[in-house]
Design goal:
Largest sheet: none
Number of helices: 14
Low-confidence stretches: 5-10
Length: 267
């Protein structure tokens, strides 16, 4: 039998077909994403154009899991992007409106937006936020004076112009003794002096500084074989394992009796 008499059937080109199908899937996915993006933009535009229309708000967040949270975020974002409080007015809840005004006030630094907040305490805090930012930006303690909350006002002044032993007599005489003890404690690393400080903030900072300092002194930060205390004793650099640059670790030189700061033996 001559097998050549039978017509040869060619196999289908599966690879090109698979590639074509994969390409079509990618095109469809991209098209869907583009349509969703365009729809989202149109929804935002509709929200702006339709003003207070409840339908426009629902259009943006109708498919959200939490429509109310969606409304707050979308409208707040649009308000900040446009710098317009009218977007905040679209919210029905007074709480959501207040949050929107407050967020917009932080961005635009407009006091008038804080005045729109319905809760007096929140309105005052909003204004304090703006006055504080203005004071910090200008490094001007006089602007701190506009802050209503006393503790916050004092912190603003102290941050810009801290009370020091040099000016404590004019600023706050009661702190002069505490500041002097703080300086002595830091210089001698004596925590007992910190504990005599009356002001809680200064006392805590003093204790924390000395605790951290002793940890540094008892550790070998640069791993040269010398602790921080020994680095001070020999005058070596605590951040450089080879202070004199002779390719030998400072600790190894000290152990061998050589000067880690240069040539020669230790005295």
């Amino acid at each position: 039998m001559d097998f050549n008499d039978y017509s040869t059937q060619k196999s289908l080109p599966w690879k090109p077909i698979a590639l074509l199908a994969g390409g079509l899937v990618i095109v469809v996915v991209v098209a869907v994403l583009v349509i969703r993006l365009v729809t989202s933009v149109k929804q935002d535009q509709a929200l702006v154009q339709n003003g207070s229309s409840q339908e426009a708000i629902n259009l943006v967040c109708e498919e959200a899991v939490d429509p109310e949270a969606c409304q707050q975020k979308r409208i707040s974002d649009l308000a900040q992007d446009q710098g317009s409080s009218q977007m905040c007015d679209l919210l029905e809840s007074a709480e959501l409106m207040d949050n929107c005004y407050w967020s917009l006030a932080r961005v635009t630094q407009q006091i008038t937006l804080c005045e729109k907040i319905s809760v007096a305490e929140s309105s005052s805090r909003c204004m304090d936020d703006i006055f504080e930012v203005r004071a910090f930006s200008a490094m001007d303690t006089s602007l701190c004076g506009s802050i209503v909350q006393e503790n916050r006002r004092n912190r603003c002044i102290d941050w810009i112009d801290p009370v020091t032993p040099a000016n404590c007599g004019e600023r706050d005489p009661a702190l002069c003794s505490d500041l002097e003890k703080d300086l002595q404690a830091r210089a001698t690393l004596d925590q007992t002096l910190c504990k005599e400080i009356v002001d809680e903030s200064i006392r805590d900072n003093c204790l924390e500084f000395i605790t951290d300092k002793w940890e540094d002194l008892n550790s070998d930060g640069d791993r040269d074989g010398l602790t921080g205390v020994q680095e001070q004793e020999y005058g070596t650099d605590p951040d450089n394992s080879d202070t004199d640059g002779d390719s030998y670790l400072d600790g190894a030189e000290v152990e061998a009796g050589y000067d880690p700061n240069g040539s020669g033996l230790l005295e």
